[in-house]
Amino acid sequence: MDSSQFPTDDDRQWSLESLNKAYQQGYMAGLTGQLRSPQPHGAEVLAAAWEAGWDDGEEQYQLLAQKSA
User: Fold this and answer.
1) What's the whole-number mean pLDDT along residues 6-33?
2) How far is it, in rounded angstroms, from Cα 33 to Cα 60?
3) Prior bond of 38 cis (ω within 30°)
4) Domains, the chain, ordered by start
5) Which of 49, 42, 48 is CA-nearest to residue 8?
6) Apex CA 53: angle with CA 50 and CA 59, to 5°?
């Protein structure tokens, strides 16, 4: 087992509030048509929350673009 399978300090330093904030930031990035990469979080859990938000925001962005076309 290598050390990459163990959580880092960054991965353990999150709260529900920080997860929600990361999700909301990702959502707004996707909703405004920003690129998915680079996302601003180093901790895997926060990065996953940001990416989930981006996915949802980008989906809404695409729906809005189709309605206005």
Assistant:
1) 84
2) 10
3) yes
4) 15-68 (1.10.10)
5) 42
6) 140
